[in-house]
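Predict structure. Chain length: 415.
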Amino acid sequence: MTPKNGPESERVASSLAGVLEAAARVRDEARKERPTVTPAMLASAPEVEPSGRYDFDLAEFPLFRFCKPKMGSHGRDPIVYTDTIRGKEGEPVTRRWEAYPGPFGFGGASTHVMLYDLLQLYVEQGCLGSQIQFGTLRAVFRRRQPDRHPGAADFRRMRRDLDVLCGYLFKCTNAFWDRARQAYVDMTWRLFDNVFYFKGRPDDLQQELPFGFIQVNRVLQEVARSRGFFAVGFESRLFYGLRPIEARLAIYLAKLFTSQTAHRRPVEDLARALPIESPRQEDVRRTLKSAADGLLAKGLRILKSYRLERGRDGRWVAEFERKDRPNQDQPFPRQIREELSAEIEGLVHRIIEATGNPHDRNWWIQCANRLGQGSVDRALGQLKETAGMKEVRNRGALLTKIFKDIARERDLTLK
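Prediction complete.
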C-alpha cells in the first residue's frame, strides 16, 4: 500500500539519504587523511592529562548568556562586543563582533561546555578534515562525568546544545587588516554547519550507534589549520568542576596570561566580555568577585591573586596577577585514530561505555584489535560480574588487568 503523499515522501527521503551519504563519504575521506596507527604510537601515548585547548578569539568574544533572559527581545538581540585591533601602519581600529542566535536561541552554561568538548575532540583528532567525530552523546557526557550515565534529559539538552552551536551566526566589522590585499576585512561566519546522529531504533535517542559527527565550518577549519588552539594551562577535569562564570573567566584569563603577567581592565568592560549581564554594578562586582574567589579556591594554577578597586577616574577596575604561564610549548597529544572496522569501533564503544574512560581510547583500540570480539566479550562479562559483587572504584584499571590476563593466556602482548 502506498503511504499518504508517497511519491513526495520518497523524493524527500531520497534527497536526505543522498545528503547523508555525501557527508559520510567526506567523513571517510577525512579518516583516510589521518596517520596509520602503529604499536609504537599507541605505546608512547602520554599518561599525563594535557592542558585543555581553546580558540584565541572565542576566549574573549562572548557567545553565551549565563543569566535567565527577561521577557521581550533580550533573548533574541545579538550579543555585541567591541575591542581594538592594529590596522594599517599600526593605527588603532575598533573591531565589532555580533553574535546572532539561530532558531534555538542562545546557549548557556551547558552549551559552553559542549563547545569546549568539541574543541578538545577536534584537537585530539589532529584537526583533520571537516568533521569532529564524537561517536555518541553518551561518550561526550562520560568525558565530563565518568561515574554517571546520562538520562533522557541529558540527551535532550546535549542535542539542543549542538543545535544552538550550529545555529549561531557571527558578524564581524574590521575583523583584521589583510596585509596582502591592503584592506580591512568584514566577515560573516559560523562555527558549525551540520550534525549527524546514528541510532539503532527510530524512537529512542539513547539507542545510539558510535558514528555521530558534526561538520566544522570552513572558517573554523582554517583557524585550526593556520593558527591552532592555544593551551589554557589547566586540565579538562578542572574545567568541568567550575561554575559557568568561573569557567568563562578562567578561559578569558588563560588567553591574556599567554602574554601578560598581570591583566588590568575596567569591570564594566570585563563584564561585557564574559558576559555578566546585570543592570546593577554592585551585582556585577559581586558576581565577578565570587568567580575569582572560586578559581583561587579550586586551585587554578595560572591565577595567583586578584583585586577590585576604584581607579582615579572613579571607575571600578579588576586586576589579575598571573602565577603560572599557560605553557604553549607542550604539544597536545594527538589521539591518532585508525580507520576502524565497524566491529572494532563497536567493541571500543562498548569498552568505553563499561569503564566510563574515553581518554584511554588508543589503549582500548589496541586491546580490541589484539584480542578480538570473543575475548572482549569475556572480559566485559568478568568486569560486570565483579562490579555486581563489590564496589569497583576504577573500572578501567580492572578491565586492563583482565585484558592482560587473557592476553597472557593466549600468549599475546599488550603494551
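Summary: DSSP finds 13 helices and twelve strands in the chain.
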